[in-house]
Design a protein that fits this description.
CATH topology of one domain: Outer membrane lipoprotein wza fold like
Order of helices and strands: EEHHEEEEEHEEEHEEHEH
Largest sheet: 6 strands, mixed
Mean pLDDT: 76
Shape: flat
């Protein structure tokens, strides 16, 4: 008998060989141990679906402006949302005496004839029309009203940093980063062409940051990397290293030179 208590048999060279049943038991034990360890690691790993930061990285968001807020990403092609200062033109087909032009107040309300205030900020035009119909439904039978956006905040982009004319510019048509820099007067001598940053607000709590290497793009003559701007984007051109250290470099003067005898 062996020290383990199992009966061994000798092979032709005299080496002790474990029975097949014992080998099968050991292999099964090893498989179960490995499965348990793998399940334990998976249970301890963070769930990416429960982490807003992981969700943001999965959607390509580079920078967060408040990670404690829920990750609610906006989609392209959404309807325009009414903002304060917008002007709405209301036309009643059956009761033209209620036709009126209203301006959205800073608190987000509009004041309607004979029915009072209705909150419209943040709503699209179909939702505003429905809210107005409900308000006039208290005094009119089945009111029919059309709502037109007469004046609104025009799409814009911001250009800051090392550009000749920083400021706010109208966004018309397909405007790229290089076009935005040109509209802002071009680069200054202190600009860093290779690290132009585009800040894009995803929602009230999240923003993305994209770096565009305009220096490489223009040198390679490949405009595929020229990012198209969205309304509200901010283009920031940082300062290059040479211009940062230049103020601390002493300027040579006449007194610093000595005459050679």
């Amino acid at each position: 008998m062996s020290p383990l208590g199992f009966g061994n048999r000798a092979d032709k060279e005299g080496t002790n060989v474990l029975p097949k049943t014992l080998l099968l038991q050991l292999a099964t034990l090893l498989l179960w141990s490995g499965a348990w360890v793998l399940a334990k690691e998976r249970s301890d790993a963070p769930d990416p679906n429960s982490d807003p930061v992981m969700q943001a990285l999965g959607h390509g968001v580079d920078h967060l402006d408040g990670a404690s807020a829920p990750a609610t990403l906006q989609h392209r092609g959404v309807r325009y949302r009414i903002e304060d200062g917008d002007v709405l033109d209301l036309q009643f087909q059956l009761t033209p005496e209620f036709n009126q032009t209203v301006t959205v107040q800073p608190d987000g309300y509009i004041t309607l004839k004979e029915v009072g205030d209705v909150h419209v900020e943040g709503s699209d035009l179909p939702a505003v029309r429905h809210a107005i119909q409900q308000a006039y439904g208290k005094i009119l039978a089945n009111p029919v009203v059309s709502v037109d956006l007469k004046e609104f905040e025009k799409p814009y982009f911001l250009a800051f940093g090392q550009v000749a004319r920083p400021g706010k510019y109208d966004l018309r048509g397909n405007t790229t980063v290089s076009a935005a820099v040109a509209m802002a007067g071009g680069f200054t001598t202190s600009s860093k062409h290779s690290q132009v940053l585009v800040f894009r607000r995803v929602n009230d709590s999240w923003s993305s940051v994209t770096q565009v290497d305009l220096k490489h793009m223009l040198k390679s003559r490949n405009l595929a990397e020229d990012l198209s701007l969205h309304p509200g984007d901010m283009v920031y051109v940082p300062q290059n290293l040479i211009s940062k250290v230049k103020p601390f470099v002493p300027n040579p003067t006449i007194g610093t030179y000595q005459s050679i005898p």
